[in-house]
Amino acid sequence: MLVGLKIRRSRLEILLDVLNAIKNGTEKPTRIMYECNLSWKLLNDALSSLVSQDLVEEVDLSDSGDKRTNKIYKNTQKGDAITRYFLHAEQLLKLDEPVINP
């Protein structure tokens, strides 16, 4: 048995985790980072990629008066469609898993 083996997430899994976190109402970057268990650099890379692909919208709050938060993130319609698609695919894959009796 392998002890202490860490399974790394693929880039796709990280991007989907970020999309799902935002879909579930987590909008602030630090909260997204904690929910997805990412470093600040990985989060910024993921958010930049999602924004450039028009999957996530970056909302600037610099005029809101809150000094702690300058930006929040919201899924676009395209981002919501992607999360629904992969959630459906994940559910289909789980249905096809064989039942193993010990």
Question: Which features characterize this protein?
Answer:
mainly alpha, 102 residues, Arc Repressor Mutant, subunit A, single chain, globular, 2 strands
How would you describe what is shown here?
This protein has 4 helices and 2 strands. It has a two-stranded antiparallel ribbon. The chain has 102 residues and is mainly alpha-helical. The protein has helices spanning 11-23, 29-36, 40-52, 77-95; strands spanning 56-60, 71-75. It has a single domain (11-94), classed as Arc Repressor Mutant, subunit A (Orthogonal Bundle), CATH 1.10.10.
Give the neighbour order of strands across the main sheet.
1-2
Element string (H = helix, E = strand): HHHEEH
Instruction: Give the CATH level 1 class.
Output: Mainly Alpha
CATH structural architecture: Orthogonal Bundle
How many helical stretches? Answer: 4
What is the 3D form?
Answer: globular
Summarize the structure.
The protein has 102 residues and is mainly α. It has four helices and two strands; from the N terminus they run αααββα. It is globular and about 55 Å long.
